[in-house]
Each structure stands twice: as C-alpha cells, then as structure tokens.
Amino acid sequence: MKAVVQRVKNAGVTVDGREISRIGKGYMILLGVMDDDADSDVDILAKKIASLRIFEDENGKMNLDIKNIGGEILAISQFTLCADIKKGNRPSFIRSKEPAAANEFYEKFCAKLLEYGVKSVKKGVFGADMKVDLVNDGPVTIVYDTEIWVKR
Prior knowledge:
alpha/beta; D-tyrosyl-trna(Tyr) Deacylase, Chain: A; six-stranded mixed β-sheet; 3 helices; about 20% helix
C-alpha cells in the first residue's frame, strides 16, 4: 500500500459539484492499494499513520500525533499512486489491485484508523472523479510504502 499523508488546516472532497466530506485540522491521505497487498499491509499502515507525530507541541517540536490533537482524517482512494513509470511516458497501472478488492482494502484501512484511536475518518467516493481541496499546513507531507515493512 502506498499513502501520501498531508498535514492540513482543513480539507474537503466534492463529487459532481456536491461536497461529500470536509474535515478541519488533521490529515488528508491519498491511498493506493497494490495488487500484492495483504491485510497485514492495512494494519501496519493504519497503525503507523495513527501514531505519526507531525503536530507541534508547546515547544514547537513535531511531537504530537493526530490523537493528541483530536484531529480528523480525510482518506481518498487514489489508484494512480500505484503507477509504474519505468518505461515510456504513459504510466501503467498493472500493479494496482482490481477495483472491488481495492475498495475493500480502502474500507478496512479507514476502519483500522478508527480502531487505532483516530477521532474521525471521513472518505471520498471510491472510483469517482473527485475534486479535492485542502490547506496544507507547513507544508508537511509524508509518503509511506508498506513494501519497506512487509516481506513479499
């Protein structure tokens, strides 16, 4: 699984001109599910993100996680994170998980974040053409790839 985590002041997602979800302070996460991802990828990624300390404490150091600040998460499924760009100029998405299974993993990931103590997880619409707006805070952006923790 691949995830791009952005610390935000606020973020929202619109589909067909209608706002679907909006959050205040927290994370906007783009999530890509790879063809060889397993439940262990979901668990480790959700645990890592729920414990990610990128919010400032009283001394201005990034020591607080999303639970410490009562922040929210907006999680957006984004299969383009699975792009293979090794050859040519047109990305290949052959390594992305097929849509029904990818949606299942996306839903599991959102549920796991709640299990790990995140106050609120809002979502986009899987497979839809979404318009995402956000105010990046910092900017602080962290990129995750579970391949570094999960042996294949």
